[in-house]
What we know:
3 domains, 7-stranded antiparallel β-sheet
Amino acid sequence: MHPAPFASGKTRRGIALGMVVLMGLVVLALGTIMIATSGGLLRTTVDAKGRLRARYAAEAMVAVQIARLDAARDRDMGGALDLPAIPLTDLQTGNGERAKSDALKRSSAGGQEKISSGLLKGLMGVKIPFLVQSTGLARGGAKAAVQAEVYLYQVPIFQFGVFYEGNLEITPGPYMSVGGPVHTNGNAYFRAKYNNLHLQGPVTAVGSIYHWKGGGSPNIYYNPAPDVPATTPAPGVGTSITQATDASLPGPVGGVWNVRQGVDRLELPIGGASAHDLIKPCTGTEAPSLARQKFACLAGVASYVEGATAQPSWVSDPRVFFDRRENRWVFLRDVDVVAALNGNPDDSIFYVANQVLIPRDSGAMHLPMINAFRLVNAVVLPRNVSVVSANPIYIQGNFNTADPAGSCGPVGVASVPDSLKYCNAMIAADAVTLISPEWPNWSRRARGMDGSLEQPFDSLDHWTSYVSHSGSDTVWANEPGPNSAGVPGFQTIRVNAAILTGNKPSNPLYLAPNSSLDATFEANYEGGWHNTIRFLENLGGSTVEFKGSFVCMWKADTPGLDTASNHVTIKRGHYSPPNRVWGYDSRFKDINNMPPGTPFLSTGVFTNWSERR
């Protein structure tokens, strides 16, 4: 049977660890009972009984050590990950069995290896092998020794094409093909609205998978296996939001399901901290598990924190503009990415943050501004880089495009084509917005009007006269985009990067299982994965090519962002969507191509139990 969905995945890992220990003790208890009630040979062979008791005691202690190691993954993965030995311990069986276990023998970490089992099967991980050795003793001097091989893996999260902490919605209008592994720690909502939606997989959801389609002929295609193209649409997909079943998902190929619901959660080994903490400033009080993955705490980080560090040359003086999607003024500084790289040759992770509260605007709206940063001069990068901010980031134009004459490109490729000669890059921010190369020049000035989308920030009163841009200014709703006649334009924006960010999730009240009506979903959803990269302009007729990995781990919460559950911001964003050509970058299948500081998951594989003589 296909795995059934669970109501919640939060406690399953703890339950699993408890079950490992429990099973070890059950084995011990059952073995003891079997020995006590057996006749024949065992009744007359006291030594055999003792050896069996000792064997069961040793196996129970191995199970305990494996459970301890699995629990330690969340605390120590990436660190020493050493456990103390368990001394000789009375197992409280009433029959005198005792057992001990050596400290886990850690050999040197191996190279990357494809994981052979579990939820991360098929992904590459950095292998860390262990050997658990336990000895059991029974009354009469009987002794048995058991060992088990344990493999732990660090798994960079950007091996996923799409990874969501909360509910995942992929419901585009145009045709979309989603490559690479897809995972959500919530429910998955897939809709073929006007055209086909193709999910290559593997696709996994901790909750349930809901799928449906619009009227007419569009449908949803799931590959039966990642390397087996879909040939027929998923059967039984109708126009109402319906939970997927075995009959409406591809069956197993070689015993493996390519699309699964009700799976275990996947979590970063950061000691129970929030993934959102990864982009926050470093306080120096972080637990080691979090500090190992928190960008601002990493050694060699070149950083700028407003009010705490001096402004470097690669960070500009502030400007202001009005963000129509959020209905707020934005206070932002530009980050010159190439200048940052050239001026800091020993750094590849650049961290910026501004958590200084700016006074409310002095115009008619009198609302808090949004503190943000904008990436500029990043069309071609000289080397691999990660740019991280606790604030929203705006990307201006192309980011990390190919340079045939440059030194970047994927490793492990015999002959790199010119089209792939771009760097391994990451953008991590509270929220991410993409604006065109022509912003803000094509704005109101393109229509012969006074003012602009953007102004230098000299004082709070400097931009008071531009409050007419805000609120109910309907002129902006029909403002021409970069492809309009007479306006300097573009045809394609390219972004090659892994993105780690947050979103504004749709209100669960309007999602299944609370509602099965497409009309209710359409009127209230916040845009889903394909709108987690935000837009502000009329991009109709243009194309946005995104190639990389997309990880959404939190609800964006920067002050000033519209996070109210009763506001549907996607409906008042004043933009026309581009043609989205979004794809998974297969270079991330090789761990050597990960951007600097890539967060990692962890998993364990337990194998090769054997008795030592």
